[in-house]
Specification:
This protein has three helices and no strands. By secondary structure, it is mainly α. α1 packs across α2, α1 runs antiparallel to α3 and α2 packs across α3.
Length: about 170
């Protein structure tokens, strides 16, 4: 039952991620339009893209590709690159939110399972205590019956005295 659920979740996650990627493409186009029409957003996207591109180039030089120096992006390339970055950031945000939600859901499920186990354990302890009380009461009754049938026998010599422990199984 649980294996079937686990195997069903994986395809659903993949389908959902494809849907999100498909939704993000028009989102990226809207970002490009907004970057072209809005001067403030235009400057933010261009600055972000150029900064990212420059940082990426510096990292490549640090890693070992010392032959190429990062070139500054022109405005159109920066808008394309910046809108792609925002789109990927959107996807990353959705993915992080889904992971967070799944983590919380699993934690709640584990907590519920733990509570059920605690309740079951508590019920078993309570049942055990009731059974022990019943055993003690039966021992006392047996002791009374044995002591009333033979008044000369002492209570300490009885094999079923109240203080003796039950035989181990």
């Amino acid at each position: 039952k649980k294996k079937k659920t686990k195997y069903m979740v994986l395809p659903l996650v993949k389908v959902f991620s494809l849907v999100i990627k498909s939704v993000s493409k028009p989102f990226a186009k809207q970002i490009k339009k907004a970057a072209v029409t809005s001067p403030k957003f235009h400057s933010i996207v261009v600055y972000g893209a150029r900064t990212w591109h420059s940082t990426e180039g510096k990292l490549m030089m640090f890693v070992g590709d010392r032959n190429s120096k990062p070139k500054e992006l022109n405005v159109n390339a920066a808008i394309d690159y910046g809108s792609e970055l925002v789109s990927e950031g959107f996807l990353l945000g959705i993915a992080v939110a889904l992971l967070f939600w799944e983590n919380r859901r699993a934690a709640a499920k584990d907590k519920l399972k733990e509570e059920k186990l605690r309740k079951r354990f508590s019920d078993l302890e309570e049942e055990n205590a009731k059974q022990q009380d019943a055993i003690d009461m039966l021992r006392l009754q047996i002791k009374d019956v044995l002591s009333s049938s033979s008044p000369s026998s002492s209570s300490s010599s009885s094999p079923l005295s109240a203080s003796s422990s039950p035989p181990s199984l």
